Amino acid sequence: MLPTVLPADLSDDDKKWEHCIRHPHDFDGWVALVKIVEQKDDLVKIRRTLRGLLKEFPLCFGYWKRLASHEKRYGDIELSFLVLEEGVKAVPFAHQLWRHYGMELKGFGKIERARR
Questions:
Q1: Class for domain 61-116, per CATH?
Q2: Contact 105, 80 (CB under 8 A)
Q3: Does 6 score more than 90 pLDDT?
Q4: CA–CA separation, 40 vs 82, rounded Å?
Q5: Boundaries of CATH 1.25.40 in the chain?
Q6: Which residues are CB-neighbours of 36 under 8 A, at least 6 positions away?
Q7: pLDDT, tens digit, for every residue of 54-107?
Q8: String of b and e for 43-78 (b: at least 16 CB within 10 Å)?
Q9: Most buried by CB count within 10 Å: which residue of 9, 71, 106, 110?
Q10: 4: which DSSP letter?
């Protein structure tokens, strides 16, 4: 039998995660959670958190860039491109995101991909 996790036993990031799940429209809660998980540098939690934030606030283009940057930093360039593609589809009018996406593609010699 697995032990029961009591709220007092949860880490700060798990408590904040629970808060964000219960209150998904609390933008400040999501931002605080992003800060916590980025400090811990746990890619699984970073992905989970940024995906959760972007599900509720897809127009926040900076967080698409942030997630793509984490994927790139951890060595998954293809996933980084996919995140940026998902972002430009979600926020097609965000010229900053398009510019970032184009520069990333150009930097890796994949400019043809942007024409698709």
A1: mainly alpha
A2: no
A3: no
A4: 24
A5: 61-116
A6: 12, 13, 16
A7: 999 999 999 999 999 999 999 999 999 999 999 999 999 999 999 999 899 888
A8: eebbbebbebbbeeeeebbebbbbbbebbbeeeeee
A9: 71
A10: P
